[in-house]
Amino acid sequence: MSEYAIEAAGLRRTYRSRTGWLRPQRREVEAVRGVDLTVGNGELFGLLGPNGAGKTTTIKLLNTLLIPTAGTARICGHDVVTETREVRRRIGYVFGGDRGLYERLSARDNLRYFAELYGVPGREQKRRIAELLELVRLDGRENERVEGYSRGMRQRLHIARGLLHRPKVLFLDEPSIGVDPVAARELRQTVADLAATGTTVLLTTHYMAEADELCDRIAVIASGTIQALGTPAELRRHADGRQVLEVEAYGVTDAQLATIHTLPGVREASVTVAGAAQVLTVQSDAGVDVQADVLRALDGVRLGRVSARQPTLEDAYVAIVNRVAAPSRPLEAVTA
Amino acid sequence: MKLLRMIGVGALLHTKQLSRSPFEIATALIVPVVQATLAVYLFRAGGEPGRLLEAAVGAGLMGVWSSVLFGSGGAIQNQRWQGTLEMIMLAPRPPALMILPITLATAVTGTYAMLATLLWGRLLYGVPLDFAHPLLFLLAVPGCVLGLGMFGLLLAATFVLMRNANALTNTLEYPIWLVSGMLVPLTVLPGWTGPIAAALPTTWGARAVHEAASGGPVWPSLGICLAISLGCLITGALMMTYVERRARAAATLALA
Ligand SMILES: Nc1ncnc2c1ncn2[C@@H]1O[C@H](COP(=O)(O)OP(=O)(O)OP(=O)(O)O)[C@@H](O)[C@H]1O
Ligand SMILES: [Mg+2]
Predict the structure, then answer these.
(1) Which residues contact A159 (CB under 8 A, 6 or more apart)?
(2) Would A12 be classed as within a structural domain?
């Protein structure tokens, strides 16, 4: 058995697409541009990054759904291009979203079908399916058609399907999307349990707390390359020497945000919307007190709570991602 | 054994999924009545009322063929739209085995059209259901369905390889009805269609079913139908392996 569950070396993937019909234009998107990573057996590895960073593409390169443009990848020592079937035997794949199920079949029939396809032995199927339905809390509704399921229920069915054949390596691409907080907590517990019993998990998520809680190591990917890799504690150090100011506000303008960016000592500034209010988050050098300057820049805006805190993984993530912000999207080349 | 079970369960569940589609249900309610009517009037006009059963069976066969042509031809595209193509391709098996249950299911769904056409023919027009070999008929129909399902795999593979396959689907529906002699006897067709007909599994399947209905040696036709279909299955399987690899290179498994 191989030392590593997942190994990728120099992995690249370019999408070529043609748009237009009368005057066809070739478009090339370099989605993944040289990814190297190794994930140990039983490790829980997180892949974080902004939209379009190349996370899904990386996962599909590893799980045989895409052939790399360059580079190699191995799962449990088997090459994803030349030993596809050996790889597929060992992997499970769960993606976020409500498609990918047979709408007019029940949850049980969906699982039965994929159990056959993924080679779960006949006499085990019934027990395994019942076990999984219970795990994802769909027991009691398993005979209803999927078309009547809520988004979160479909997501949970996806998860059950991914686990049917007890994969050694599990790829979870935003598995908690649309799942309610209680179910999300249960899902995290399930994932942690799987990793504890030796399943290797590669997880992507946009929820920093989820990644922080679960992952042994995290890679932050942006523009198709890995920008930082380490344990959550190591990543947090990217925000070392900084402090964070959070201001609840109502009606911050873009111009004001731009002004705040230019204040001495300010490293990052961003606004997120939380209900009716906005939350302005300002990262600054720890030695500089920017609070007075920031509040002055917000002159005329109705303010709520103002608080200072230590940086979290999310702040570190923002710092890493903004460092490469220059071309925030992968380079797109348009040639006629 | 395990393999047969997988194909069986797969075909069964796909039949379930297909037969619950509102479009399928509407088609299934209307088309057989129309086909029974057409068949009966065509033959009444032709002054051959004795061959009403043959006509109804022929109309039913057309229903099976339409279902296979549209269902199998569009099988891969359909799975892609549902987002299930990636999930079935992830199974550790040859890609053809993941698609075969679907094409078989389209043939099975089509059988319903055959039964319904016969039933409507009987109820509305009093077509006598006196089969020459009732038992063989019950065997020839599933045999023909199996053959068409295997042929469907070849269609499925061919159609993803060709752009604008949709246009092709529509143009194939009627010619193959005709050339295979589902409705009119092959003897009335121009001579050059002969070799084409002989190469199509639909011809032999239709012949076996007709022979079972109105008399003739069923076995040889059925045998030839299954043999040709097996050839189609093997060709289709090889093509499907190529199609899968190409799709992974071109990123067309997912709807992006
Ligand atoms: N099939 C495709 N054809 C062309 N371009 C694609 C295709 N799939 C993805 N891309 C492009 O590749 C880049 C990376 O996409 P990818 O889906 O890997 O991002 P991601 O990190 O998973 O993003 P998200 O967080 O939104 O899921 C994007 O610019 C995207 O537009
Ligand atoms: Mg993604």
Answers:
(1) A94, A136, A175, A187, A190
(2) no
